[in-house]
Specification:
The chain contains five helices and five strands, in the order ββαβααβαβα. With 153 residues, it is of the alpha/beta class. The strands form two sheets. A three-stranded mixed β-sheet has the order 1-2-5. Strands 3-4 form a two-stranded parallel sheet. The protein starts with a strand and ends in an 8-residue tail after the last helix.
Length: 153
């Protein structure tokens, strides 16, 4: 399944912003759409960390269930629950203050990258973000999301 992220920083000079366009990890390929939306949000937080971003950050999510689960901080479905834990761990550990907003697909800046349409985009360019190590397997994700264990990323 294709996913995408766009990082638009408050201090960016634009007119285009770094974006990731790729596929979900193999372990997540058969998950439902809200889990994939949570995965994309978690990846956006990881990409922001790679760019050394901190502070107030708006995360646009175009799925109601995913948005509510991220705000609530949990969900009754695995691996969505671990992805949410990883998202919050990234935010807290890196001084990112998230504001999670439900937005329609037509208004979501990450919609083009999620469809693989980065090269012709008017708002973003392809950036070589790496897949965080904790997202390479379910086991690594669950370990990272477990706050009782110290991890590095």
């Amino acid at each position: 399944m294709s996913i995408g992220t766009v990082i638009i920083r408050f201090d960016a000079s634009g007119p285009k912003y770094p974006a990731y366009s790729g596929h979900s990890p193999d372990w997540c390929a058969s998950e439902n759409i809200y889990t994939l939306e949570i995965l994309a949000t978690c990846m956006a937080a990881a990409h922001l960390v790679q760019l050394r971003g901190t502070g107030h950050t708006i995360f646009f999510v175009d799925n109601e269930a995913a948005c509510a689960a991220l705000v609530r901080g949990t969900f009754d479905h695995e691996p969505a629950r671990s992805l949410i834990g990883a998202f919050w761990r990234l935010c807290i550990s890196n001084r990112i203050i998230p504001w999670i907003v439900r937005v329609g697909s037509a208004n979501n800046p990450a919609d083009e990258p999620s469809r693989g349409d980065v090269d012709s985009s008017t708002i973003c360019y392809s950036h070589e973000f790496s897949l965080p190590e904790f997202l390479t397997s379910r086991k690594k994700l669950e370990r990272f999301a477990d706050w009782s264990k110290p991890v590095s990323y």
